[in-house]
Amino acid sequence: MISIIGAGIGGLTLGNILKQHQYDFTLYDSATEIKPVGAGIMMAVNAMQVFDHLGLKEKIENAGNKIHRITIANESLQPISKTEILELEKKYNCCNVAIHRAELQKILAQNIGYEHIELNHSLRKIEKKHDYLLSFENGIQKESKIVFGADGIKSQVRNQIFNTGIIRNTGQKCWRGLVKFDLPEKYDQEAIEIWGKGKRFGFVKISGHTVYWYACINEKSFGSNLTLTDIFHDYEPFILNLIESTPKENIVCHAVTDLTPIPKWHTDHLCLIGDAAHATTPNMGQGACQAVEDAYILGKLLEKNHDFNTVFEKFQKIRRKKVDYIVNTSRTIGKVSQWERGNELRNILMEMIPEAINQKIAHKIIELEM
């Protein structure tokens, strides 16, 4: 009698947690199949601790690529700031893993068992009767005592039940690409982000010869008829090579958005998780990681209490401070990283930040609350 709306990374992780606690549940998703669409993703140490707890850490590490350092650089690839992960890896017995999003979803779905997942179920309407009545676009209706809305920033569950949540556009646009490419060996276990004027470019190896990259621009500063190679013409030559080597069908483009904080994530026997509750911009690589943390905290609370309404209340109390910090900090990083003036000063100030401070911030993000 438990329904999870949305089989993204948050919904699938929650399914794995509920299975571990021997609850009966069904995941509903609008996709017709779980197939390799989407781009790369980095699962940070906080998410990897949860996957370790689920017994999936090694499987995910083997399907992706371990990342030991995160570097911010200038257009000539000179480092401005480095965050070494090795000490944190030792402490938490986990490391960052860059992986194809579809690979990760497949591992999580297989571990749940496809019998718990109903595809081609796009939620049209949700109503509170005695229980919840779910009506799907395919004409099927289901009743459910407990509902989790894990259906992303444009959540139907949030829109219909809470009638709240403003999606904020940052004025930035982001392309994401996947390409077979031999990166210089020194970048094998490093995630790099290059800050320019009103634009950024990031890349990371996600497996054998596959590289995931993203390119982010301030929309108002670049005409719509410019190509990516025009925009990044002043970057290191191999960056242009990376873009030009990527097949068009492997590139997706989206506006960069987040969600204004909403007052409540839960109501009677219903709770929002992940982007449905607290969507963030991708600047800290924490969107999916925070959804994974949500699932983990719900699981920890269900170990002590089987009353879902009490659990939902405690869940929001525990999670609120951290996700608000991530949404706000990520938004600020998005602005600072794409300054159009004063970039050299910004870079000098970034270089002056002691490694200990970077470590402290990293620690704050990846420490689980329970």
Task: Note the main attributes of this structure.
370 residues; alpha/beta; 7-stranded mixed beta sheet; 6-stranded mixed beta sheet; 19 strands; globular
Précis, in short:
It is built from 13 helices and 19 strands. With 370 residues, it is α/β, with parallel strands linked by helices.
Walk me through the structure.
The structure is a single chain. Helices cover 38% and strands 28% of the residues. The chain has 370 residues and is α/β, with parallel strands linked by helices. It has a seven-stranded mixed beta sheet with strand order 6-5-14-15-16-13-17. A six-stranded mixed beta sheet has the order 8-2-1-12-19-18, with helices on both faces. A three-stranded antiparallel beta sheet has the order 3-7-4. A hairpin with a 2-residue loop joins strand 18 (266-267) and strand 19 (270-272). Helix 1 (9-20) runs parallel beside helix 10.
Note the gap between the termini: 27 Å
Alpha plus pi helix count = 13
Kindly state the percentage of residues in helix: 25-40%
What kind of sheet is the major sheet?
A: 7 strands, mixed
**Quantity of strands, as a count:** 19
Calculate Rg over CA atoms. Answer: 21 Å
Shape: globular
**What is the topology, as strand order, of the major beta sheet?**
6-5-14-15-16-13-17
Strand content: 25-35%
Mean pLDDT reading: 95
Structural class comes to alpha/beta
Give start-end ranges of low-pLDDT stretches.
Answer: none
